[in-house]
Design a protein that fits this description.
Layout lengths: L5 E6 L2 E4 L2 H6 L15 H18 L3 H42 L6
Antiparallel strand pairs: 1-2
Length: about 110
């Protein structure tokens, strides 16, 4: 996925790009596609989580592993729903903010 597909053409201080709305619609914009450096807090936290998960799973019997994996799957679903809802609300807010900026607030009532 492309974060922003910017053209290399500049005119003044403006950098031209494809339509953000079209790119978003077609799934070409991804906001979770950033990469983190190996020493970043995110990578360190992910490694700690993986290490703890491995140690925890080694203490479970087969039925406990199955229950815990179900829990992890449900937690992943909840996180995906939450991320989507957050994105939608932020997008709506951004659109309203841009309408207000470009219309001096007259069209937002």
């Amino acid at each position: 996925m492309v974060i922003l597909d910017l053209k290399n053409t500049t005119k003044g201080n403006v950098l031209f790009m494809k339509s953000v709305i079209k790119e978003l619609y077609h799934g070409n914009l991804g906001f979770d596609s950033w990469t983190y450096g190996k020493d970043s807090p995110f990578v360190k936290a992910a490694q700690k989580k993986a290490d703890n998960m491995k140690a925890l799973m080694e203490t479970f019997d087969d039925s406990q592993k199955e229950l815990f994996e179900g829990y992890i799957d449900a937690q992943g679903d909840i996180e995906a729903i939450t991320r989507y809802d957050t994105f939608v609300e932020a997008l709506k807010f951004g659109i309203l903010l841009m309408i207000e900026v470009f219309s001096d607030g007259d069209d937002c009532e």
